[in-house]
Write a structure and sequence with these properties.
Arc Repressor Mutant, subunit A, elongated
Length: 196
């Protein structure tokens, strides 16, 4: 019996009404008010969904980015139900990317935090600045390879396909980028930052 209730509620959430069809038609026509109405209808549930993965402020930021993608891609969607699924799927992937993006930075931050107090920067701002300066030593191509590998969690093969280059080139760029980051931190007195 519970399964039937859940199923009926799910169907209600994604059921297309005449109002949904009218609203979607207005969205396709570029009616900004209609876009705002759809987003307002989804916003509470959608940000709640994102908040199950990231904190509330990050969920709001991801939601805003997702809504922009929705607006840019709405012409590729078939109806309001499809649009809502697009928003949830896009938001989910953006949240996953956000979590992965923090992984390399978190690893560096963790290692910086474990350095004896006399050796490490005074506070969080200094650590953030040091990390930003380190990442700025990389070329655009190195940043792209590192980003796909660590932020998006892609394999070298997937990264190569995405970038349109050989897998060996991806591996070389990641290796070179990590080497540059290691050298940067060593030069600034933090030799163990990128060690496992």
């Amino acid at each position: 019996m519970l399964f039937v209730i859940v199923y009926v509620n799910f169907k209600e959430v994604f059921a297309m009404t005449d109002n949904d069809k009218i609203l979607f038609s207005k969205i396709l026509d570029g009616d900004e008010t209609a876009v705002e109405t759809a987003i307002r209808l989804w916003h509470s549930g959608f940000t709640g969904f994102l908040s199950s993965m990231v904190d509330a402020q990050d969920a709001l930021d991801i939601a805003q980015g997702t809504y922009l993608k929705f607006i840019k891609n709405v012409h590729k969607l078939n109806n309001l139900e499809h649009a809502k699924r697009f928003v949830y799927k896009t938001g989910y992937h953006m949240a996953i990317d956000f979590i992965r993006k923090r992984n390399l930075g978190s690893r560096i931050m963790k290692n910086l935090a474990e350095i004896s107090p006399a050796q490490k920067p005074a506070g969080r701002v200094e650590i953030d600045e040091l990390l930003e300066r380190a990442l700025n030593t990389l070329s655009v191509k190195e940043k792209a390879a590192l980003s796909l590998r660590f932020e998006s969690g892609m394999t070298a093969k997937e990264s190569a396909r995405y970038l349109g280059i050989a897998q060996g080139t991806v591996l070389f760029r990641v290796h070179t980028a990590l080497g540059k980051l290691r050298n940067f931190f060593e030069k600034h007195g933090y030799p163990k930052v990128l060690e496992d």
